[in-house]
Amino acid sequence: MKYIITEDQYDRIYILRRGDAIRDFVKYLYPSFYPCDYRKEDFIYGILDSVNDVDYDWGPKEPSKDEIRSFISTFMKDELEDFWETHCGEE
Hints:
It contains five helices and no strands. It is an all-alpha fold. α3 (40-50) packs across α5 (77-88).
């Protein structure tokens, strides 16, 4: 069976398929952040802000910075909060 998808759907699928690569990118950013220097919310915003500042090899089609930030804030927020709580405890 063939499915016809629009360009917008293709872009969304592309980002979702790159979820592991985006997670690796966020882990690549961890050494530049000492999580306990930030409050939990500031740590997440710091990760989102650093997307603009870091060059990363995404392969043939690089997702936009907004797409990366959207994926992180949508699908990784709980994971980042858990990371902060594991390393820094409660505020």
